[in-house]
Write a structure and sequence with these properties.
about 100 residues; alpha+beta; 5-stranded antiparallel beta sheet; two-stranded antiparallel sheet; about 30% strand
Length: about 100
């Protein structure tokens, strides 16, 4: 899938070149869309964050930071970011195995 121009400042080619961009990822154990397909992603341009998913707790989002590589967690209560992993595929695998948590 071609990267929409409004998302070009984010280093997100792994997401847009994967099936996640079209299908998202339903996490059975969490009972939520861990990764959203393109229509469900949110561009929080005010904080430079492209949210592609969520763990379903405390408003935390998973996504890309403007100009930085990898997948990050955004914690809105503390207004803080935390690096999680290098790709969306690694996020899904790490979440399912319990290696990645928030």
């Amino acid at each position: 899938m071609e990267i929409p121009s409004q998302f070009s400042e984010y280093l997100n080619t792994d997401y847009f070149s994967s099936p996640f961009a079209q299908e998202g990822h339903w996490d059975e154990s969490s009972q939520l869309m861990l990764i959203e397909p393109v229509p469900g992603i949110e561009n929080h341009s005010d904080i430079g964050f492209l949210q592609i998913g969520r763990p379903g707790v405390d408003g935390i989002g998973f996504g890309y930071r403007k100009g930085l590589s990898g997948i990050w967690a955004y914690y809105p209560v503390d207004d803080e970011f935390s690096f999680l992993c290098s790709s969306v595929g690694e996020l899904v695998e790490g979440w399912q195995s319990g290696r990645i948590t928030v």
